[in-house]
Amino acid sequence: MTQRTALVTGGTGGIGSAIVRYLAGQGHRVVTNYRDAAKAETWRQAMAADGIEVTMVPGDVSDPQASEAMIRAIEEKCGPVEILVNNAGITRDSTFHKMNYQQWMDVVNTNLNACFNVTRPVIEGMRARKWGRIVQISSINGQKGQYGQANYAAAKAGMHGFTISLAQENAKFGITVNTVSPGYVGTDMVMAVPEEVRAKIVAQIPVGRLGKPEEIAHAVAFLTGEETSWITGANLAINGGHYMGW
Ligand code: NDP
Asked: Which UniProt keywords apply (predicted)?
């Protein structure tokens, strides 16, 4: 297999860590960003203890200048980014009539605008080298909407609009661009939901359980492989059958 430089944003989180492990396990040079250096070092050491070496660079993906600096730092340390997984994300839930501007902007900046901030500094290099793999981690709630998540659902749906436009523009340059839309996965983000609400969610999932981060990582590894050069502009829903729409 060809060893590639892979950037997984938000790689220290629940799903991100699984993606990092999977891509590193395939032999790629894996990089992720951090905002809190002490927290990042603890995470890096835990990964190293499992034999997973990860390059860490500072970077807030909601900030365009910080993202550009992050990409240049990665290029210096590991060479150009060939696989990009736009995974960093947050929620700031509220019903819309009570939502404030900050909650809206924080979620749109971190989930959607980050796709611009991080992808823009890598895309020209991918086009010049005629190879690239870009995956957005969206959400089931970008597909079906969700009570209390107008900000998150709008941002996540926007990520797929970004995917299908970028896929068209870059198909002739050996670059595939796809979306993975996970359903409810048992990470901190979902475990923060009150238990009785979680039980109601699980009751709606035909497979009868929350997803595992590894199940999302497996799909990302598939979409970023050498063999999947004819899959572009797709949205891969991985949700235990919770939503079977587009
Ligand atoms: P976590 O909260 O576990 O991890 C989120 C990661 O994103 C952390 O590493 C966090 O870093 C990073 N991050 C957040 N904001 C920024 C920022 N501004 N700049 C850089 N990094 C940032 O979330 P999950 O692993 O559960 O989710 C990963 C992705 O999957 C998200 O996009 C989420 O929306 C999506 N998703 C998750 C689902 C689930 O059920 N868990 C379902 C559907 C989609 P830090 O430690 O610095 O905060």
From this structure: Oxidoreductase
- Please enumerate in sequence order all residues whose Cβ is within 8 A of that of 175, keeping only pairs 6 or more positions apart, or say none: 123, 126, 127, 131, 132, 133, 134, 166, 232
**ipTM rounded to 2 decimals:** 0.99
Give the CATH number of the domain where residue 15 resides: 3.40.50.720
Catalytic residue among 34, 101, 147, 152: 152
In a domain, 195, yes or no: no
The total domain count for the chain is 1
**Is residue 105 situated within a structural domain?**
yes
62 lines ligand 1 (CB under 6 A): yes
Look at residue 207 and tell me if it is in a domain. Answer: no
Q: Which domain holds residue 158?
A: 5-183+214-237
Q: Which token pair is 14?
A: 């629940």
Whether 199 is in a domain gets the answer: no
Report the nearest atom of ligand 1 relative to the CA of 185: 40
Q: In a structure prediction context, what are the per-residue pLDDT tens digits for the chain, which is 246 residues long?
A: 899 999 999 999 999 999 999 999 999 999 999 999 999 999 999 999 999 999 999 999 999 999 999 999 999 999 999 999 999 999 999 999 999 999 999 999 999 999 999 999 999 999 999 999 999 999 999 999 999 999 999 999 999 999 999 999 999 999 999 999 999 999 988 898 899 999 999 999 999 999 999 999 999 999 999 999 999 999 999 999 999 986
For ligand 1, the distance from its centroid to the CA atom of residue 16, given in whole angstroms, is 7
Between the alpha carbon of residue 151 and those of residues 1, 89, 221, 225, the distances in Å are 40, 12, 28, 32
